Amino acid sequence: MASAKPTVLHLGEAIKYNHDFYDAEFACRFNIIQATETDRESFIEALKTKKYGDFSALFRPHFQTGGFMGQWDSELIPLLPSSVRIFASAGAGFNWADVDLLGARKIWYANGAGASDEAVSDTALYMILSVFRNFTRSQIAARTADPNTFTATHKLIATISRNPRNHILGIIGFGNISKKLAHKARSALGMKIHYYDIVRADAKDEEALGATYHSSLDELLKVADCVSLHTPLNKYTQDLIGTQQLSLMKKGSRLVNTARGQVVNEEALIEALESGHLSAAALDVHYHEPQVSPKLAKMENVTLTTHIGGGALETRINFELNAMRNIIEVVGSSGDFKGEPFTPVNKKAFEAAASR
Q1: How many helices (H) and strands (E) does the chain have?
Q2: Which Pfam families does this entry report, sorted A to Z (predicted)?
Q3: Which residues does the annotation mark as catalytic?
Q4: Is the pLDDT of residue 128 over 60?
């Protein structure tokens, strides 16, 4: 006998952390079906044949699984039943889904915003310290276990490194993560905070963070001693930082990217580092991820990590929890809309469609 409860289509692995909430709050409200496909072609066929019926929500609690169908685009999204109210996913990024198209079909897209704020801002803070103090170069030398290399690097580091204090941190994209970073960099490192965003922050936020607003990206780049990127990847931010933008930065300045790899043109970055125009860079994300540029990997003035900005257990726990909470907030007992998600990404597109 079919369940009278709204159906949720679960993509990827089973939940791992929030079992009490799942049992007491989530599973009791919804009929949860696990998608069994492992590739795009078979998933498309499942949607065409209505294998999973008229489900009300898509649930992807782990950003490292459930992506077997590839891009959510104009081929895939129109196949979703009209009953779908929300796509709730773990992770902060959403460049793999056309969230505006989802919104146009009156489907909310909600991500894991907030869950990774602490971890990503901590990672960016570490990278700022690394590019000012040349910690990667020092680590490479220490790991040689060679006394001569150790001594030579010990002497060199003191002549090329700077304290971050009183230097200008230029932040591109002033959301929750970068505001946390601004607070940490200002209070712990004594940095001066400047930022650029298409939407200016509230005056109270600027005052609390001592943040100076720039109405153009170019103006921010000209004054910053270190630029930290915090923008989503979309058609407007692809290669946002290229040859022209890097040329505007001060000679000897630094670049940190914990956003998305393709926001920075990789070849332009390599050229700026090789010429000495940039003194250092730190990348948690990579243009051809998971492939890291072999050229960048050889540079001792470049800090590289494996997209672990949000990689803390607390992040994973809250990604999973927030995906459930967003569905509960949106889907009513009969599968109708009952509210908005806590972390909507496509609110503008959704509301435009809903108003028609």
Answers
A1: 14, 12
A2: 2-Hacid_dh, 2-Hacid_dh_C
A3: 260, 289, 307
A4: yes
Kindly tell me if the per-residue pLDDT of 299 is higher than 80: yes
Q: Where do the structural domains in the chain lie, given as residue ranges?
A: 7-115+314-354, 117-304
User: Strands 278-283 and 31-34, how do they pair?
Assistant: unpaired
Superfamily grouping for domain 7-115+314-354: NAD(P)-binding Rossmann-like Domain (3.40.50.720)
What whole-number distance in Å separates Cα of residue 112 and Cα of residue 270? 32
Nearest residue to 158 (alpha-carbon basis) of 195, 132, 186, 197: 132
Q: Do residues 319 and 112 make contact, with C-beta atoms less than 8 angstroms apart?
A: yes
Q: Is the dihedral of CA 11, 16, 17, 21 positive or negative?
A: positive
What architecture is the 117-304 domain classified under in CATH? Answer: 3-Layer(aba) Sandwich (3.40)
For the chain, give percent helix, strand, coil, nearest 5.
Answer: 40, 15, 45
**Between β-strands 86-89 and 7-10, what pairing exists: parallel, antiparallel or unpaired?**
unpaired
How far apart CA 304 and CA 290 sit, in angstroms, is 12
DSSP strands (E only) in the chain: 7-10, 31-34, 57-60, 86-89, 108-110, 168-172, 192-196, 211-214, 226-229, 253-257, 278-283, 302-304
Does the pLDDT of residue 1 top 50, yes or no?
Answer: no
Kindly report the pTM of this predicted structure. 0.89
Place of tokens 């915090």: 230
Closest CA relative to residue 224, chosen from 265, 201, 247, 192: 192
For residue range 239-287, what is the model confidence (pLDDT) as tens digits? 999 999 999 999 999 999 999 999 999 999 999 999 999 999 999 999 9
